Amino acid sequence: xxxxxxxxxxxxxxxxxxxxxxxxxxxxxxxxxxxxxxxxxxxxxxxxxxxxxxxxxxxxxxxxxxxxxxxxx
Length: 73
Description:
Layout: E1 2-8, E2 16-17, E3 20-21, H1 23-39, E4 40-45, H2 46-49, H3 59-72
Parallel strand pairs: 1-4
Antiparallel strand pairs: 2-3
């Protein structure tokens, strides 16, 4: 295991549907994060905070929260 922390973030606007995030994309993300957690001390994913699109947040808020988290990683 790498003794480092990893921050994962990407725009999801094009993957959002009326029911939340596209389920295939959500599955892909969760598998990627699972793999990363096997190799890194800590993995932070902004989409978990946003509940995979179920908790709507404006980009201006997300960006501030992301930068604050990055400062601690």
